[in-house]
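TPPC9 protein (Scytalopus superciliaris), 596 aa
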Amino acid sequence: KMSVPDYMQCAEDHQTLLVVVQPIGIVPEESFFRIYKRISAVSQVNVRDSQRVLYIRYRHHYPPENNEWGDFQTHRKVVGLITITDCSSAKEWPQTFEKFHVQKEMYGSTLYDSRLFVFGLQGEIAEQPRTDVAFYPSYDECETVEKRIEDFIESLFIVLESKRLDRATDKSGDKIPLLCVPFEKKDFVGLDTDSRHYKKRCQGRMRKHVGDLCLQAGMLQDSLVHYHMAVELLRSVNDFLWLGAALEGLCSASVIYHYPGGTGGKVGSRRAQGGSLSAEAGNRHRPGAQEVLIDPGALTSNGINADTSAEIGRAKNCLSPEDIIDKYKEAISYYGKYKNAGVIELEACVKAVRVLAIQKRSMEASEFLQNAVYINLRQLSEEEKIQRYSILSELYERIGFHRKSAFFKRIAAMQCAAPSIPEPGWRACYKLLLETLPGYSLSLDPQDFSKGTHRGWAAVQMRLLHELVYASRRMGNPALCVRHLSFLLQTMLDFLSDQEKKDVTQSLESYTAKCPGTMEVITLPDGLKLPPVPFTKLPIVRSVKLLNLPASLRPHKVKSLLGQNVSTKSPFIYSPIIAHSRGEERSKKIGKKTLQ
């Protein structure tokens, strides 16, 4: 059973050759990864005297049990091994070379070729010309590494091409072997190998396998033909697991055709597949465009028997973007019938999501992701769980499901501090929690909460802030605890119950006893700045009662100026007071006249 999923898989990985790069003996980690980086930069090689391009996928760790699925999908097969070693004296050389052979045995049945890069050994041994060993004086003096890798890849291509031609040629009279996945082998013991059903199964599986080899060898159109023929054969005998693989092969080849830039998210990471093909791809394969048929005679020179030309004529050339997704759904439904194919099913879901993200079909992508969440694998380690939830989060982010993305990132954060981990990673936990904030509409700047209505779910935001406080405490950073608690009290005050207010203030009191709060900006190691939190909502005013002012501040009544001859006192010709006094005099005179 394949147990370790590769969450970074993309549809275009099906056209790659898998090469493992590993150290032998004690190699300084920094030196190993410096050479590994240079090796893995040679990921694309133009085949000499041909328009074909080879793509290489490098790994520095690959589980041998995954390698056993190499016949099912050839991009899972380790075909190249490059080993790196330190060797300073001729005395160490025989033992070093022996270790190289032991390492080769691990992937022995699938390797096309291997190389050993020796650093530090000089003298007679290093001067002997060899194809499988390269000697360099030091890690700084190795200019030819890239050229050596290109030559190595050319040697892989020669073996790949011979296998492709050998298996694509119909040798009449020879029995086609039955390719199997590891868990099937016991099921086929004692089967009637002469029955028509069994022969069709063998033919269908081999056709699918040849399709894989064509795709890896840079022959996209040929691979499509083989996949279509394999689908027909395998469907007729209800060979569902391999039918799923043939359909997925069709999807992969069609994705490579439609999206030469790749689906992995690194724009421009892959070149177009060859002149005429990529130029036509945009015009011929718009959604809903007429399917193009293969020229029946086009492939006979590539090892396909001319008798099959009628089938080739009927085969559709390439799936439309809509059909790609339908075929992915069908393939995944077949994988789902086998509990031992959980990793294959999970990876197919992830590949389909990456394609749907490019097609901007978010709702359909979320259905594939939902399926991926519920696929049961073996008991995963905590590190694998963290990786799984982080990738799910990244994929949800890519399709615009920001809150769902935050949900899975928070689970990944909690996993970093799981009780079963001997040394919980509180720093990693805190960092991941910070990354979830935008998904929950939460900012750590108090000013963002003074503008209008509250955004997001307050209950979830409070939980998240409590978790940030706890992670800060476990990291041994009381200043961070004070800042997050202050922020919680200031911004979430309207949503806290009386008991919660009491709890938060008591916690804040105990933390500030050790580390007083400040109005300084706190800068985190990754550059994020946490602004200070002024308590503008506290204390809360419940009632207002007017108190007498002190005697010195009380107002005193000014004596009235009425009745005084203000005309001589005032600098104004006309003033309200003068007008008022004159008005009174006039009214008195009028009163007297009336009485008389």
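Residues 442-540 form one domain. Confidence is low (pLDDT under 50) at residues 266-315. ok done for today
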